[in-house]
Amino acid sequence: MKKIALTLFLVLGSLTIQAQELSWQTDMNKAMEISKKSKKPLFLFFTGSDWCGWCIRLQKEVFKTPEFQKWAKANVVLVELDYPRQTPQSPAIQKQNQELQQTFMVQGYPTVWFVNASKKDGKINLEKLGSTGYVAGGPDAWLKVANEILTNKKS
Fold first, then answer.
1. Interacting residues of 49 by C-beta distance below 8 A, sequence separation 6+
2. Closest CA relative to residue 115, chosen from 13, 40, 17, 16
3. Which of 20, 38, 76, 111 could form a disulfide with 43 if both were Cys (CB 3.0 to 4.6 A apart)?
4. Weakest-pLDDT range from 4-13, 15-24, 40-49, 98-107
């Protein structure tokens, strides 16, 4: 009986952890559709996921915390624009990410841009709301900066 209870506890625990995982989009077209339906701005995370120390630190200290996860679900559509050195990517994703890096003039990682996206006559329009990067102090300090960017958008 104890084995069954323990097994059930472990299975339910892993399901709860999976339910808390955030959904990061990698395709801008799909992210824009979600943004349009949800009326939430895009959160563009420019990262070198497998080599950038500050990117990894930002993920660990902020993006993987319950505070950030709750905030993100309520406020933004998450988009990861990755520039890995070891992890393979499709040519389409590489091209998309390269074009966005040039559009936003990203010169260092991590960089986060908040944007409103729309399509008109088949062309994508990205309205820049503001950007940030790594902010020391954990999720509270980082979210303060993010909220200031989003609040300025609404005024």
1. 55, 56, 59, 80, 82, 84, 87
2. 40
3. 76
4. 4-13
* Residue showing tokens 């993010």: 146
Q: Helix %, strand %, coil % for the chain, to 5?
A: 50, 20, 25
CA distance 97 to 105: 12
Q: Counting Cβ atoms within 10 Å, is residue 56 exposed (0-12), middle (13-18) or buried (19+)?
A: middle
Helices (H), the chain: 2-20, 28-38, 53-58, 66-75, 91-103, 138-154
Give the orientation angle of helix 66-75 with respect to helix 138-154, to 10 degrees. 10
Amino acid at 8: L
Q: How far apart are CA 151 and CA 74, in angstroms?
A: 14
Angle at 105 between CA 79 and CA 89, to 5 degrees: 45
Q: Per-residue confidence at 122, pLDDT binned at 50, 70, 90?
A: confident
* Owner of token pair 């050195």: 85
